[in-house]
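Hi there, hope your week has been kind to you so far. Would you mind checking whether the tokens look sensible for this chain? I owe you a coffee for this, so here goes:
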Amino acid sequence: MQISPNSQIPRFIQRLQWVFDPLQLMETSAKTHGEFFTLRLTVENPLVFISNPQAIQEIFTTPPDYFDAGRGNKLLKPLVGENSLLLIDGETHQRQRKLLTPPFHGERMKAYSKIITDITQEVISSWEIGKPFSVRDSMQEISLRVILQAVFGLCEGERLTRLQKLLRSLLELSGSPLRSAVTFFPILQLDLGAWSPWGIFLRHREEIHQLLYTEIEERRNNFDSSGSDILTLMMSARDENGEGMTDVELRDELMTLLFAGHETTASALTWALYWIHHLPAVRDKLLTELYSVDENTDLNEVSRLPYLTAVCQETLRIYPIAMITLPRLVKTPTTIMGYEFSPGTLLAPCIYLTHRRPDLYPEPEKFKPERFLERQYSQYEYIPFGGGNRRCIGMAFAMFEMKLVLATVLSQLDFALVDNIPVKPLRRGVTLAPSGGKWLVTTGKREKIKIPAGV
């Protein structure tokens, strides 16, 4: 039996590197130790990074009772709550996952297509030709409004406006590597009053909770099962015993959807617009495909365009928003590819390193959408949404939104990158995001491509 090699970097330095330069830490560790290596990023549990697809397959297909994934993600608890799908295990997780899955699949997706395109049109109408703008801010506005309207069915109103403002401010509290440190160093989580970072977080979170409880209470008192929004579907869902979700469960799942379904998509869209305009050949090929779309084409057909799909897939490969999957906490002695892991060890299939394997992705540092047209990758080789029984339930929704936003934006306007403004990956909370700045400028309106406005 083999034991995963431990990094020799002092524990405190490992944690600092994980916060401030995670890509360098992972790449250096992989060069030194290979496909399995152990870092000490928490006080309690060693974290094993794994980038071998066979090992990842063994982890994803191991029966759930061998691992606890929820208990391995405690650092997310302050944001999403202890009843979040991300933090629960066993039968409770299976029950909750069944209740939450229906809104994100099949025919339900069609109900969101017009929401996505209409909101995108509204946001881009404010962009001024010749004036550089923050892509990230615009993509955050689109993704936040989409998720709020999809979740609550609300287009306007004081509660919606207040939720938007509070969610933005809460996310900005971890909007840089320095501000993200509070997530990874619990000693910094001190409420020193309304002006301290953690104090602001707690007060904004409490106000969001109260807004959500008010919405839930009003829905229960005047319940209309005909609504197509996600909250209505969640409140209608029943398990095999006829039980629905409690108010606290609904609150925590709503917090999970609002954050996981907003921040991640905004980062992915920002990266996509960067790569499309950084590489003229990619932009030209994508525009040629969009030119082939008839204005009467169903939006669901637009989302199936092969090169548009490949651009989105490559965007999530080269700088995946989540660098590792949700870690699995070993409950009983487990062997993966000859490596033995004892209880209390966290196993983390590493999305970033797996996506950078030259044997899977030749010239992995280059943005090449064609690789997804030339080869079919397995669910253990391409894992931007995790895998196994912990794969992101919003995967289909996120990809659908990405494609429709990009198609809508590119069909309306021409853009150019602003010279000498580098766009680099940096930590933003628990995710990897593109750096900020006004690095894109609108150069004119596009006349010929007409993406349908809705279905």
Remarks:
- Residues 11-445 form a domain with the Cytochrome p450 fold (CATH 1.10.630.10).
- The chain has a mean pLDDT of 89.
- The two ends are 57 Å apart (CA to CA).
